[in-house]
Structure to design on (487 residues):
């Protein structure tokens, strides 16, 4: 989708469809046709949130959308309104849509209109034999262009939002690809290609031998059951050299189990196909880092993504096996389906070894977080108040909201091993999401760290701009978090 900001009235654009929002108690602002007022007067047009009405004037379609009370209007509501308008525009075979930015609203709202439109327009059809073919009536299946009409000062925000929307949709493409297509090697090649294209980004990918050589016994144990080569993906970006900016070296860590059968502790068959989404944290990290580099944010960043399959075979790690992580901690693997924390353990150690001073990890780690929070919030656990606050604020700004769960020394007792230092899956099925974080805390030491369990948010988010399938959750949050360090 081609996205641009224009400083002329929406009705003067060459778009075939114009979207105008109206708040409760107000009339449509700006240079709009009288037909919009007639829609409201007749009751066909309504000011209630998400209510749509259509009219034709000045040779264009005009979509009037209710925005509800102005005091309740947020960037998240703008994303939802944009998605609702975008869906209707596609039904009308629109090719170019122009949004009239609501009067009195700022750049954050304009950016949200772009994000909501782009995310709502997403479809994954790479593996459909008729993808890309013209429909019998030649109706477009996607919007070709999006214009945002408003002050000239919106141009930078609109361009940045377009870049971010593209990144989220690329992460969704990675998530939606099946396991026989997106193998760990393929994900590594994808990341390496980003490093080749983005001048300020360096990417290194190591396979099984490198993982073993680094003493990553926990990661290697998960990977040993599959014939597919695992991939340790390391991304580095330093945007501070030219600007002289100061700040901590940020560390992003992502779990990327490209297919998770559960290993020897095999999962039930129903919905196992969804376990291609178990690499969602890694996809978010890869695309967030690439976007930060493209935006040239003045931050220092190192990212580590652990990619592997988790499959049963004669080579698989077995329940009861004891493995040694990169920091020397021994782990009883009492459930091979608690594999994500094994991968992350070594990746967290690696990020710290590479100089990360504040770390955020993203992982589809536990089904327990879905029981606790559903799909509305991701679970946040952290050992640092300031970092937790930054993550929460980034989530509020992006609509990728998080809910903080506690860490307490009593939870540490639950992950103590009987025969090794740690137990990856304690039998007492208590506080499953928190226990996962308590386990991971053994691999960060005193480094400020935040863990995001996104198992409920990574797919089937069921928001107007992200419905079934991959959501790309975390890309926007991580980029906004990086922005928060820019003074």
């Amino acid at each position: 989708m081609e996205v641009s900001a224009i400083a002329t009235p929406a009705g003067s654009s060459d778009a075939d469809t114009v979207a105008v929002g109206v708040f409760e108690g107000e009339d449509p602002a700006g240079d709009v046709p009288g037909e919009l007022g007639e829609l409201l007067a007749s009751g066909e047009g309504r000011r209630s949130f998400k209510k749509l009405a259509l009219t034709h004037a000045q040779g264009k379609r005009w979509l009037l959308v209710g925005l509800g009370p102005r005091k309740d209007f947020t960037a998240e509501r703008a994303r939802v309104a944009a998605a609702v308008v975008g869906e209707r525009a596609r039904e009308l075979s629109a090719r170019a849509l122009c949004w009239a930015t609501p009067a009195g609203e700022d750049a954050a709202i304009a950016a949200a209109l772009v994000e909501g439109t782009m995310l709502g327009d997403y479809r994954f059809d790479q593996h459909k034999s008729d993808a890309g073919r013209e429909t019998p009536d030649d109706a477009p299946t996607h919007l070709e262009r999006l214009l945002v009409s408003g002050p000239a000062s919106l141009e930078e925000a609109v361009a940045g939002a377009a870049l971010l929307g593209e990144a989220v949709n690329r992460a969704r493409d990675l998530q939606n690809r099946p396991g026989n297509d997106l193998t760990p090697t393929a994900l590594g090649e994808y990341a390496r290609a980003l490093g080749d294209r983005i001048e300020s980004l360096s990417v290194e990918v190591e396979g099984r031998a490198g993982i073993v050589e680094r003493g990553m016994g926990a990661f290697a144990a998960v990977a040993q059951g599959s014939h597919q080569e695992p991939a340790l993906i390391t991304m580095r970006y330093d945007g501070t050299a030219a600007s002289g900016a100061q700040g901590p070296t940020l560390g992003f860590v992502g779990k990327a189990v490209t297919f998770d059968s559960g290993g020897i502790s095999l999962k039930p068959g129903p919905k196992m196909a969804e376990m291609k989404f178990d690499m969602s944290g890694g996809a978010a990290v890869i695309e967030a880092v690439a976007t930060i580099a493209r935006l040239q944010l003045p931050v220092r960043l190192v990212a580590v993504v652990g990619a592997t399959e988790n499959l049963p075979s004669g080579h698989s790690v077995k329940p009861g096996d004891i493995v040694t992580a990169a920091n020397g901690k021994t782990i009883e693997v009492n459930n091979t389906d608690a594999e994500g924390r094994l991968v992350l353990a070594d990746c967290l150690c690696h990020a710290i070894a590479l100089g990360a001073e504040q770390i955020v990890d993203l992982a589809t780690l536990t089904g327990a977080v879905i029981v606790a929070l559903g799909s509305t919030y991701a679970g946040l656990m952290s050992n640092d108040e300031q970092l937790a606050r930054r993550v929460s604020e980034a989530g509020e700004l992006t609509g990728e909201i998080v809910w903080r769960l506690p860490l307490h020394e009593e939870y540490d007792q639950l992950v103590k091993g009987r025969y090794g230092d740690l137990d990856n899956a304690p039998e007492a099925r208590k506080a499953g999401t928190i226990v996962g974080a308590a386990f991971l805390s053994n691999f960060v030491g005193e480094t400020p760290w935040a863990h995001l369990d996104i198992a409920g948010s990574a797919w089937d988010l069921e928001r107007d701009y992200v419905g079934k399938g991959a959501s790309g959750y975390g890309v926007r949050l991580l980029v906004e978090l990086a922005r928060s360090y820019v003074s």
Remarks:
- The radius of gyration is 24 Å.
- Residues 182-483 form a domain with the Aminopeptidase fold (CATH 3.40.630.10).
- The chain has a mean pLDDT of 96.
